[in-house]
Automatic annotation (TrEMBL), chains A, B:
Source organism, top-level taxon: Bacteria
Domain HTH marR-type, first and last residues per copy: 4-132
One Pfam match: MarR
Protein name per UniProt: MarR family transcriptional regulator
Gene3D superfamilies: Winged helix-like DNA-binding domain superfamily/Winged helix DNA-binding domain (1.10.10.10)
DNA sequence: CGTTTTACTTCACCATACTAAACTATCCAG
DNA sequence: CTGGATAGTTTAGTATGGTGAAGTAAAACG
């Protein structure tokens, strides 16, 4: 097998396994983590908006947010402007998640700092293109669905 | 946020979402895909050995292999040397999975071919180190588990 | 050979996360 | 105000993937 492809697959496996371990450790599901990602990108949003975004019913989101808040990953506040609504924000707190991701970030930063500026540019370029391809392929697969 | 970290998170999300889409498309779970990864790395192995490797009971592996064979990802053969045993191998066949991963591989190969040899070495080095860190961190988290 | 062990499958049961729908609280329109 | 719409939670039911143990077939042992 092409050594590049092999590396890519290993990275992919490593990423997925890391995510699984984090999920198991914090007591959140893969879907919960996806919702967290949506929330991180989008910023504060209501429970209903999140439900629409992740394609689940409001009821499911209640359970999801329960788990995420229990894990200390998300804050759930009543919207002062409309007290029926629940505003969700990614908790910037300490806690288990900060410990986990902080440690990863430290390692990654240290590793990256050993490259020259030019090398870092190459790496960033590669990552950007890879993300693009992955998103593209994900769309393609999802479109083929049934 | 550090642009490098941001890119890393995006890649991670893209990888996970790609995996989820593949799983949904082929009708296999995340666990199934992990087992497939084990099988790919290890080569042919018996159902019992796979069960031990992924930490599930033999009964669960039966169902898992059912799904994987149904998706055309794995072959299930009786071991001619010991006919109680079931030999599992990654199916190198055509089918939906080949179409999916083939397309991804084509895109990635084309993208990588645009870099010089030196650049490719930098990228490979980066990927290798990243995988190492991820595996390390995964171990760390799993160890912390109660 | 007959008994015991081994390898996988099958079965009954359990946990979990989902949906649909009833319920509660709040907002808005007349 | 009052009636209806909206936001989220709660609840009853469903699907799925897991465990543990019984069942089936093949190998190994004495």
């Amino acid at each position: 097998m092409d050594p590049g492809a092999e590396l890519g697959r290993e990275l992919s496996t490593a990423v997925v396994m890391f995510h699984e371990a984090v999920g198991a450790h914090l007591g959140v599901t893969a879907g919960d983590q996806r919702a967290l990602g949506v929330l991180a990108r989008h910023g504060a949003m209501s429970a209903g908006a999140l439900a629409k975004e992740v394609g689940l019913t409001p009821g499911a989101v209640t359970g999801m947010v329960d788990r995420l808040t229990r894990a200390g990953l998300v804050r759930r506040d009543v919207d002062p402007a409309d007290r029926r609504r629940v505003l969700l924000t990614v908790a910037d707190g300490a806690g288990a998640s900060a410990e986990i991701f902080g440690s990863l970030a430290t390692e990654m930063t240290a590793m990256i700092s050993r490259y020259t500026t030019e090398e870092r540019e190459v790496i960033a370029d590669y990552l950007t293109r890879t993300v693009e391809i992955l998103r593209d392929q994900t769309r393609r697969i999802s479109a083929r669905q049934r």
